[in-house]
Amino acid sequence: GLMSYQGVKNLREQHRPKGEFQEPTIESMMNFINTKTGKNDVFVGSMALMANIKLSTNRRIVNHPHYEDVA
Questions:
Q1: Mind listing the pLDDT tens digit of every residue in the chain (71 residues)?
Q2: Rounded to an integer, what distance in angstroms lies between the CA atom of residue 41 and that of residue 52?
Q3: Contact between residue 30 and residue 56 where contact means Cβ atoms under 8 Å apart
Q4: 36 with 54: CB under 8 angstroms?
Q5: Rg (Cα) of the chain, in Å, rounded?
Q6: Are 36 and 52 in contact (CB under 8 A)?
Q7: In 16-60, which residue ranges form alpha helices assigned H by DSSP?
């Protein structure tokens, strides 16, 4: 009925391409890491930031012990 029609309409709207993601601060940091740090340098920080660094710069990362499995 009407609810399923509205649901489909909402899904189509949400999945429509909206352009590329931009975050100037993060982009600037990744450019700095790529140009001003050594290939063997290691970075530590939040899990979300470390994931970005690993994917964008392929630098080594470590996770805070709080996130490690004690076993």
A1: 677 878 888 888 887 776 677 788 999 999 999 999 999 999 998 888 899 999 999 999 987 666 666 66
A2: 15
A3: yes
A4: no
A5: 19
A6: no
A7: 24-36, 47-57
